[in-house]
Amino acid sequence: MSPKVEKLPIPSVVLGEGPHWDIATQSLYLIDISGSQLIRYDPQANKAFIVKLDVPLASFIIPVEGSKGQYVVGSGIKLYLIKWDGTSDKTESVELLHQLTNDSEANRINDGKCDNTGRLWFELGSPNYGLRKAILTYFLF
């Protein structure tokens, strides 16, 4: 039997990034960077849920282990704690966790993931994808 590839019912995004499978909710989370949207795809319901953020250039979403409806989101040079029920079109709250000291306005948080001990690893890089030389700095939170 060959694998089946199927299109998910996720609306088109401007710049999709940072897909994360959450075992606890059995859901796929991702970000639309340019559209500043969080997206949760529920395969059981075969439906996508979207919330627009009031923060620019969100780049990753990571569910907080043991805290239902809480997510760490990287955006610009900031880390936020977002409370969202995963279905509503509004967030419950957006709390600034940390702001990086940035020596260049050309930098922003890009990809981020947690390791098996819960530590968050992410990079700060140039949003100018036309650069010939990548400018990346890595962080642990």
From TrEMBL:
A divalent metal cation binds at residue 17. Binds 1 divalent metal cation per subunit. Residues 15-122 form the SMP-30/Gluconolactonase/LRE-like region domain. Substrate binds at residues 108, 110. Its cofactor is Zn(2+). The keyword Disulfide bond does not apply. GO terms for molecular function: calcium ion binding; gluconolactonase activity. Keywords: Metal-binding, Zinc. InterPro entries: 6-blade_b-propeller_TolB-like, SGL, SMP-30. One of its GO terms (biological process) is L-ascorbic acid biosynthetic process. Signal peptide: none annotated. Belongs to the SMP-30/CGR1 family. PANTHER family: MIP34848P1-RELATED, REGUCALCIN. This is SMP-30/Gluconolactonase/LRE-like region domain-containing protein.
